[in-house]
Amino acid sequence: MPINYQEVYTQIQTIGAGAKERKKRKEEAQARAREWFAAFDSQLDLLRSKVDSARAIDPNLRCAYPLDEPLASSFDVRPASVSPTLIAADGSQINPDRHAAVQFGLVNVGAIIMKMKSAEPPQIVTDSELLFGDDLLPNGIPMSDGMVALKRDLAERKKLDDLSKEIHGPVITFTDGPIELWGMKGDDPTSYEDFIEKYKGVLSRLQSRGVITAGYVDKPSADLVVRLLEIAIADNEQIQKLREFHPLRGVSDRWLYGERENPLLKPGHRSAVFKIQSSSEKRYTGVLSLHFFYLNVGTEGHPWPVRVEIPKWVADDREKLNLLQAVLVEQCRMMGSKPYPYLLNRAHEIAVVKNEEKQQIEQLLAMELSKQGEETDSASPKQTGKDSLASGRKRYGT
User: Fold this and answer.
1) Is 218 left (phi over 0), alpha (psi -120 to 50) or beta?
2) Diameter over CA atoms, the chain
3) Domain boundaries, the chain
4) For 398, which of 85, 232, 233, 361 is 20 to 30 Å away at the CA?
């Protein structure tokens, strides 16, 4: 049955009717955010104390934790003093489908290595891991889509580690998304903890070699700094019920740093560096603890703040921090009006798995199993119906 457009249109009209009120509330919250941001600019001791108090009540609190740079800090990009080697990695996956004729999964990682200011062409690497049989049942539990995504993320980071081992001189590695591994902790807690331990091993090896590593979060929706401001103005009673206290609801860090008419960061500038206060603190400790800063990779009149996540060993080294900032700004400028690191864009192109490739792998796997005398299943009637419908749409839509 097609979408009931009349019903949807009625709901759209209702949404539209509330637009002015929502706009007013949002603008009021935005004005308060700017006011509090300026008021607490240099009150770092107070801010840390308030976060510590809130964390004692709610250990899962997630917000920015100020270090030694004022809130309103804005650091201009400095020309790179050295020519580092850059390594970017991205991954994609095929998730197991219980409705398919053959149960399998795939993790595909693409990486690209480029020496800055060198005539050498970039080096491209692709790793493809097919998941079949017992691979799909870690600890006897069927692998979920979330666990496949975790496996992909870990494979990206391990590839950065492997490729950086033999490189002399400064090295910068980056991936798309947070530096922290995210995943479905509840699907398989044992496997999840195993992924985390392996990832921490990767980070430790990178740190031992002095590699600069970062996670690049494009168009971030988080409110880490905004949440810090809410905590700053909360009284004792509100601190006790912080999960219900959201006077700046609807205001994002991205707006705060990149408001079009008056952005807090000029093009190429980075914000203060903050520590990430979250439940992950107990996993990422010492030199591996997670930090971040915002970086405006846009142009005059067109700000585009992104969040760059880094481990403590990068945050503590001003030379590494400045080099990372310079490289990311240059990489984004290579993409023109759509600022995004050039190498990450290339890595994504290398890693992406197309639907026709998935179908070809499934066919090859089914043929090999049949050749070896292993029985294969049939696609479920549900999947057959979907395939037929998709085929019909394609046929009649041309």
Assistant:
1) beta
2) 73
3) 28-376
4) 361
